[in-house]
Every structure is written in structure tokens, then in C-alpha cells.
Amino acid sequence: MTEYRVSARRIDNHGSLAVAKEAEVVLDTDIAGRRDAMNPVELLLAALAACMLKGIERVTPMLHFQIDGAEVALEAIRQDAPPKLTMIRYLITVDSAETDQRLALLHRNILKYGTISNTLSGAVPLEGTLTRKV
Predict the structure, then answer these.
(1) Cis peptide before 125 (omega within 30 of 0)
(2) What is the pTM of this model?
(3) Residues of the chain with pLDDT under 70
(4) How far apart are CA 51 and CA 45, in angstroms?
(5) Distance between CA 103 and CA 71 in Å, rounded?
(6) How far apart are CA 116 and CA 69, in angstroms?
(7) Which of 31, 49, 91, 132 has the maximal Cβ count within 10 Å?
(8) Residue 134, pLDDT score
């Protein structure tokens, strides 16, 4: 069993700071919002994007998959009452000459072995595709 630890503290009424290992992330906890920091939903989406990109790094050597780059774009739909996300959409774009069948295999493996994607899919619908960069 793997354990993770993050601590966060309020800096002032405009922001907070999260710390894990030797990394720090400024958090947008200002009621008015901040342009220079991610809010909680954006952080959640960033965690999902990182999970997907890390999944690519994990499975490409196992599948002997040739890849020259990857990008993930995400969007979330939020309802107001009660406040919650009702949908997360994603688009994974890979720069690769692999066949469509191999791209589909990569996509399945990214979702199958992703800690964050598996956790979120139990709480909110995840819809998306993996496509080839043109």
C-alpha cells in the first residue's frame, strides 16, 4: 500500500500554499479568484492530466510504443446546487506513428492503470478520447 502526504496552509485571504516532498504549489483560495494560481477544480483536472501523462510514461516501454510527445486537454462541468462536478471531458493527443489499434490499446491502459482516473471515474463520468497529433 502506498501513502501520499500533502500539507496546505493559508497564506492570506488571497491564497494558500500546498507542499509535498520538496515541491510547493500556490493555491487559488481567494473568493474573487486569482489568475496566477489554480483553483481547486483546476488542481483536480491537473492531477488527472498528470495521471494520464504518467500513465503514458509507464505503459509505453511495456508496450514498446513509439511516442514523440503527448498532451492532455480537460474540461469539467460543474453544477451549483449542490456544488459538484457532473462531467469531466478529456482529449489525449499523442505524436506517434503507431497504428489506430495500438493507440486504442494505449488509451485503455492509461485509464486502466491510472490511480486518479480510476478514483474519479467512480465519482463523476469521465468521457474522452485519445487521438493522433496531425
Answers:
(1) no
(2) 0.94
(3) none
(4) 10
(5) 14
(6) 21
(7) 49
(8) 86
Torsion 81-84-86-91 (CA) sign: positive
Q: What is the pLDDT of residue 70?
A: 98
Residue type, 67: I
Phi then psi dihedrals of residue 41, to 5 deg? -65, -40
Locate 134 and state its grid cell: 496531425
In a 3-state reduction of DSSP, which class is residue 33?
A: coil
Q: Return the exposure string of 91-122: e unless at least 16 CB atoms fall within 10 Å of the residue's CB, then b.
A: ebbbebebeeeebebbbebbbeebebbeebee
Q: Is 36 left (phi over 0), alpha (psi -120 to 50) or beta?
A: alpha
Convert 4-42 to b/e letters by CB count within 10 Å (16 or more is b).
eeeeeeeeeebebeeeeeeeeeebbbeeeeeeebeeeee
